What does this fold into?
Amino acid sequence: MSVRGPSPRFERAPVRTRSRVTYAARPSPARHLRWILPLAVLLGVALFVFVATTRVRGPSTAAASGDEIRAAGMQGTRPTKGLLAARGPAPRLEPSSAGALPVIPARAYVLIDEASGAILAESGGTRRLPPASVTKIATAILLLELGHLDDTITIDADFSTLDPDSSSMGLSVGDRYSFRDLLYGLMLRSGNDAALAIAQAVSGDEARFVNTMNALAARLELPDTHFTDPHGLGGPQHYTSARDLASLARYGFTLPGFAEVVRTTQWDTHGSERTELWNSNVFLYMYDGADGVKIGYTEEADRTLVASATRDGRRLIAVVLGDSYAATHASQLLDWGWASACWPTTAGTCGRITPRD
It folds into this structure.
């Protein structure tokens, strides 16, 4: 503890008489106790607080890197260390029981077990490719981390400069919507305008939000990911990989509200306009047990898909990039995964997923 200002000076106090100044006698030691004892008590309390604070905060601060501390402190995001660790045993593959892995003519794909993160099948999993609108998974994650879904914002930007053929929620200047409505407009309608509105409302402008997206990629240790926009219409410096997208989706499923949004097929907004939003992810309507996540398309990227399905309490995630029939081939990957994998049980056996008709 430090005391601001110059060191105190102790002098004999002047005592005024009729016409001259004389000095009082030296005070007794007892008078000094009037300020020495309170000061000692104050110093003791300060020392106790310092030690207690060090014990509580010291280890976590020392264990985190400078970037992690800045990300958690400045952006308000929760530390992600350990959240991608296995939350269950990895399944064992027995491909002989399901036949050969299907031929998937995609630029890249990966099939993982969501709980353990174990890779069950892969081709070009670390290849850097344009993701198109599956970029919005990262945008949704940051809104869930940084925003309050019941907060209402006013749209003050004109999105008419967006390509008229691009997907849109239909936002106009002056519209008022909750973050929750924007989240559903982002993930169901795949609104590029919703992505920009979220970026501006959360971070102040698009550039700062994109920096936060790249900070998210760094926190999750996604080595093959770099973002230049919140919607996926970006150029050659906007890329990711099948593996990174699988990890991003795994992290999303740890956030409250994420699973609910990505499995929803229809949502009615409650803002300026009451709009019926239908999910554009065709995989949700065609696969038994489908519960997410996001589909995308640009001419450069072709069809992209992060698909998840849950059966008997187990979830698999398939990522297919650069494939005109992404939903069909993701379904084939998942079928093969359910048939080929079995999960260790507490009884020491290997449990299989019940076949579907």
